[in-house]
C-alpha cells in the first residue's frame, strides 16, 4: 500500500517566483490499484510523481510504502521499489548499448548494483520471451543498439526493463504521448497486461481523458497542486468526457485549461 499524507512542495520558496506545486496531497493506493491521473497544465502531476519517486524531498507530509516511511529515502534507494517512465522514449535506455546490455543494466540497477555483469542465461531467455510478447520482432534483435530502434519499440523495452524485477509502484508519466496512435495503443495494452499480471500499484498520467476513464479502476484529477476529483466505482464507470468536464467545472468553478487533453478525445 502507498500512502501520501498531506504532501506539500513549494519550488523556489522564499523567492519572488515561489510556486506552491503540491498543496496537502492525501492519497492512498491499495496494492495492485491502477489509478489514472489527469489535470490541467501545471496542475502538479509530474511534481506528484517526482515526490513519490524521490527526485526531490517534499517540504511537509509523509510518504509511506508498505508500512515504511520513505519520505526522506534518497531516489536511488527507492528505485528498486518505485519505477518511473517518462514521455520521452529516449530517456529510459542507453542508446549506445545493445538491447541485451540495457537489460543487464536494468537487472543490475533493480538489484542495487552499480555495475552490470553479463546477463545470466535464464534471465536472458525470460527477457527474450517477454520481448516476443510485444510482437515487435525485438526478440531477435538482442544484439542491436537500442539507439537504432523506433520510439515505440524503445518505450516498450523501457516498460519491460522498468518492471523486470517487479517494482511495488509504477509511475507512468504520459509514457505513450510521444508515440503514434497505433503504437501508443499497443504500448498501453502491454502496460495493462504487465501491471495486471504482476499486481503492480500504478499511477499513470495521461492527457487522453477517454484513456483515463477506461484504463485502470480509479481516476484522480489535480488542479493547482490539489486533488479536486477522485473517481472510482459506478460514478467513474458511467462518466463520459462531457460529464467529467462538468464535474471539473463544478469542483473548480472554471473550465479545464489543457488544450492537449481537450483535443485528444
Ligand atoms: N523544478 C521546478 N522548479 C520550479 N518550478 C517547478 C519545478 N517543477 C515544476 N515546477 C512548477 O510547478 C508547477 C507544476 O508542474 P508540473 O510539471 O508538476 O505540472 P504538470 O501537471 O505535470 O503539467 P503538464 O501537464 O503541463 O506537464 C508548474 O507551475 C511548474 O512550472
From TrEMBL:
Residues 2-249 form the ABC transporter domain. InterPro entries: AAA+_ATPase (IPR003593), ABC_transporter-like_ATP-bd (IPR003439), ABC_transporter-like_CS (IPR017871), ABC_transporter_ATP-bind (IPR050166), P-loop_NTPase (IPR027417). It comes from the Bacteria. One of its GO terms (molecular function) is ATP binding. SMART domains: AAA (SM00382). Keywords: ATP-binding, Cell membrane, Membrane, Nucleotide-binding, Transport. It is found in: Cell membrane. It is a peripheral membrane protein. This is ATP-binding cassette domain-containing protein. It comes from Agathobaculum hominis.
Amino acid at each position: 500500500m502507498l500512502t501520501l499524507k498531506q504532501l506539500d512542495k513549494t519550488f523556489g520558496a522564499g523567492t519572488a517566483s515561489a510556486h506552491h506545486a503540491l498543496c496537502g496531497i492525501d492519497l492512498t493506493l491499495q496494492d495492485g490499484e491502477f489509478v489514472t491521473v489527469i489535470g490541467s497544465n501545471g496542475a502538479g502531476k509530474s511534481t506528484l510523481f517526482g515526490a513519490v519517486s524521490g527526485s526531490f524531498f517534499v517540504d511537509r507530509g509523509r510518504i509511506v510504502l508498505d508500512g515504511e516511511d520513505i519520505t526522506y529515502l534518497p531516489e536511488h534507494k527507492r528505485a528498486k521499489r518505485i519505477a518511473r517512465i517518462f514521455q520521452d522514449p529516449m530517456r529510459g535506455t542507453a542508446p549506445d548499448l545493445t538491447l541485451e546490455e540495457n537489460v543487464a543494466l536494468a537487472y543490475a540497477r533493480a538489484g542495487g548494483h552499480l555495475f552490470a555483469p553479463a546477463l545470466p542465461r535464464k534471465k536472458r531467455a525470460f527477457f527474450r520471451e517477454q520481448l516476443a510478447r510485444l510482437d515487435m520482432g525485438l526478440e531477435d534483435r538482442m544484439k542491436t543498439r537500442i539507439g537504432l530502434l523506433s520510439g515505440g519499440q524503445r518505450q516498450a523495452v523501457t516498460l519491460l526493463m522498468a518492471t523486470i524485477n517487479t517494482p511495488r509502484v509504477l509511475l507512468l508519466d504520459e509514457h505513450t504521448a510521444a508515440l503514434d496512435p497505433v503504437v501508443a495503443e499497443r504500448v498501453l495494452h502491454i502496460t495493462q497486461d504487465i501491471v495486471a499480471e504482476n499486481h503492480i500499484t500504478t499511477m499513470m498520467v495521461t492527457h487522453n481523458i477517454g484513456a483515463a476513464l477506461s484504463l485502470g479502476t480509479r481516476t484522480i484529477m489535480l488542479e493547482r497542486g490539489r486533488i479536486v476529483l477522485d473517481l472510482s466505482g459506478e460514478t467513474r464507470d458511467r462518466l463520459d468526457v462531457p460529464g467529467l468536464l462538468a464535474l471539473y467545472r463544478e469542483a473548480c468553478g472554471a473550465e479545464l485549461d489543457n488544450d492537449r487533453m481537450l483535443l485528444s478525445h
